[in-house]
Amino acid sequence: MGKAGKNVRRAAVSALRAWAKGHVYADSLIERHAERNHLSSQDRALFKTILNGVLRNRSLLDHWIGQFRKGKIDAETRDVLRVGFFQLLILRIPDHAAIYETVECARKPVQGLINAVLRKAAHFRARMLRELPDIELAIQYSHPHWLWKRWKKLYGVENTVALMDWNNQPAETFYRPNLLNPPPEGAEEPENVRDAMATGHYYITDPSTSHAPELLAPKPGELVLDACAAPGGKAIHLAGLMKNEGRLVCMDSNEKRLPRLNENLERCGVTIAEVAQHDWTAPAPAELHDSFDAVLLDVPCSNTGVLRRRVDARWRLQKIDIANLVEIQNAILREAALCVKPGGRLVYSTCSIDPEENIDLVSSFVEKNPEFTLGESQQILPFKDQTDGAFAALLHRSPAS
User: Fold this and answer.
1) pTM beyond 0.90
2) What are the Cα distances from residue 151, in Å, to 139, 144, 346, 381?
3) Is residue 105 annotated as part of the catalytic site, yes or no?
């Protein structure tokens, strides 16, 4: 494997070091570090597997490392060991490649230590895997203890274990046919899907993302607002349900995301969209008040329903973050609701499985805003529905008296 193998492990360690500094999300590190280390497509795939696998199994890897190395380990050496242990115990890469190439990517002063620890792990691998079921569940499935305790209280032990196991599996890629530009016959064959995506016949999105647009059920000719639209998956679905008839206003708080939103809409043949920047934690523009037949509000959230895809989010998220997010979500809902015309409707949605961000929040909003009533709501749970987690609730505004 030689230089290429060394580069894969070096890229993984380098990306883990960058991630630990807290400035970059894991998914954005993959392309950057693959290019920096001149990885081939095959090596890039292994690099991505190692990086995501180490982040998904971080607590378990540290538990195993602690069995062979007592005392303090500097952060970079620990990341090298994590990369090695992941290959040996989870990927089951042959010992020579896993150990030699990992040792070679480390700094000279610690190569002897890393070599010794990895060789011990390889020697005791069968015992370690045999003892895996005896490890504390939060560590075994590598989730923060506070999240394990929170979910256990909400969903019970069995469902929480199933949820953590789901989060640790590689996420599938789903291709949704574009309602405005249906795929030609034969395009559903795997080798043709990528070409069909480039021409807008498909777009990538999890099945769970369809619930909110379909609950809103926009009709052709309506004036519809997608308030938090980037990167555009739900907006494309809305336009399809509207048959490209009417007007679809797509907004996002981050101006830097608008070019990609525009590009995705254009590629998929959406002709009724207008794109603009607005932060809904600020007052809603007065000219938008009482304007829209239908509003889709997909708010920023904890991402607890999509931890399978956002592999590092579990380690970024803190308990206090959910309380802070609820404040932001309430503020956004209050402002967006002002834009629903009398007799109109709003769907509030998240990719969270936490009731505080979902049913508790919309129920509280309805209590404080009697002109709105709560209609159908849907909580999608990975361990039950076998898709990403999501929530959507339909709110109706009373007609003008």
Assistant:
1) yes
2) 15, 11, 28, 12
3) no
